[in-house]
Amino acid sequence: MLELWNERLRQEMKACEGELRELRRQQQAPCRDCTHLQENAGLQERLSQLQREAEEARAKLAELDLEVQQKTNRLAEVELRLKDSLAERAEEEERLSRRLRDSQETIASLKSQPQQIKYIIKTVEVESAKAKQALCESQSRNQYLQEQVGMQRQVLKEMEQQLQSSQKTAAQLRAQIMMYEAELERAHGQMLEEMQAMEEEKNRAIEEAFSRAQVEMKAVHENLAGVRTNLLTLQPALRTLTHDYNNLKRQVRDFPLLLQETLRSARAEIGQAIEEVHSTNRELLRKYRRELQLRKKCHNELVRLKGNIRVFGRVRPITKEDGEGPEAANVVTFDADDDAVLHLLHKGKQVSFELDKVFPPQASQEEVFQEVQALVTSCIDGYNVCIFAYGQTGAGKTYTMEGTAANPGINQRALQLLFSEVRGKAADWDYAISVSAAEIYNEALRDLLGKEPQEKLEIKLCPDGSGQLYVPGLTEFRVQSVEDINKVRGDGGWWEEEGGTEGLMNWGGSLVHDPQIRDHF
Ligand code: ADP
Ligand code: MG
User: Fold this and answer.
1) Which of 308, 316, 441 has the alpha carbon at shortest distance from 391?
2) What sections of the sequence does the record tag as coiled-coil (predicted)?
3) 323 is in an annotated binding site
4) Measured from the CB, is residue 450 less than 6 Å from ligand 1?
């Protein structure tokens, strides 16, 4: 029965597997990314779960089979033991009854013997003396036999006791056998009940699994039908996709050619554009140079119009050092309408001076510098520039030219401007700036940066016919920042002149943009 069920389950399982294979075959690549694959995966999962459950039922069934087999073996064993004990009992009974029979026979033979003896005694009493002797013998013999009988009776009694005990044992054994039989019966009944229950349980499990499998199979079939319909609807989309794919493939195949073609034309276009940029650059450069020359010319013209030599006056404020009283009185007044006029009260008379510009006491360092700023541009353009301050001691020359750290004068501001202009043009120009310092004192020219300050130098005319002056052997330092210049200057004393003049002179350098353009200042 169980094997039959097993076989049926196995066949059903095989059928399910076959269907699953069929389903897998139908759900191949075209539907790879659609949702049916997920549904199928779910179904497969459920199917494999069912298979697992059937497998478990099968294992349980095998377990039950094994248990039944074990119980049958145990029953056979008990039956065999019962048979053995029954045979033993029969044998024992047989032996006991045989002994009983023997004993009874012995008793009977012993009972018959004394009668004979008595008879013999009676007959012998009537006989002679011989016979009396014989009688005596017989009497002793009789005595012996009576003893024997007594002994036999004793034996019989013992045997009867033995028989009784044997019968008791047999009864006990019988009761025990009956008990065993009852127990066996009960065990057999219990086993049958258990087997029945197991059988029922197994049948129930199988039926349950089968019905579940049927339900699942139905669901699988339904899903399959859904998948089939979906596949049918997907087919046109697949056709379109294939068509698109082929188109794309064609495009991809043609792409390298197209790319090459595009690259070729792009290269040609870029080359042409580069060429155009080059020529534009050349044109721009040409225009720039022309404009540069023009700007230089205009600037120079402006400087010339303003006056190549300009004289400014600066009146410093009254300081504590000037003291008090008439000596410290202010003798200078200004013209409200003309910043180039200065009035001086001299011995009660007003004397007027006209300069290029007059800076009043409140004029700032910044304002003074603005007035000479254009000269720095001229210097970068290649013109020689000279700025110097002249006046009596305490007039404010050092303040105007050098100033203080918090409020620098013309020198520091001009140098800052020079280097910042040079840095701004560094992308297009190469500048070389060098510093030299010389003084003319009592008609003697001395090198202020030289190792031998007392050595007298000479001023000579440039042999190139440019009309420029130069000092052969004058010490020069290449500088790249204001800090470099300040280092070369040391404490700055060399700006100062005993005679009350101080100045900023002889900026020199060369600038190179490209080999064809070379300017000098
Ligand atoms: P010099 O160099 O001509 O001998 P200084 O420049 O040393 O004179 O000036 C003398 C004093 O006057 C210094 O204390 C200086 O600070 C002060 N001084 C000069 N000019 C001005 C000014 N425009 N504003 C304020 N103080 C000034
Ligand atoms: Mg001074």
Assistant:
1) 316
2) 6-113, 156-212
3) no
4) no
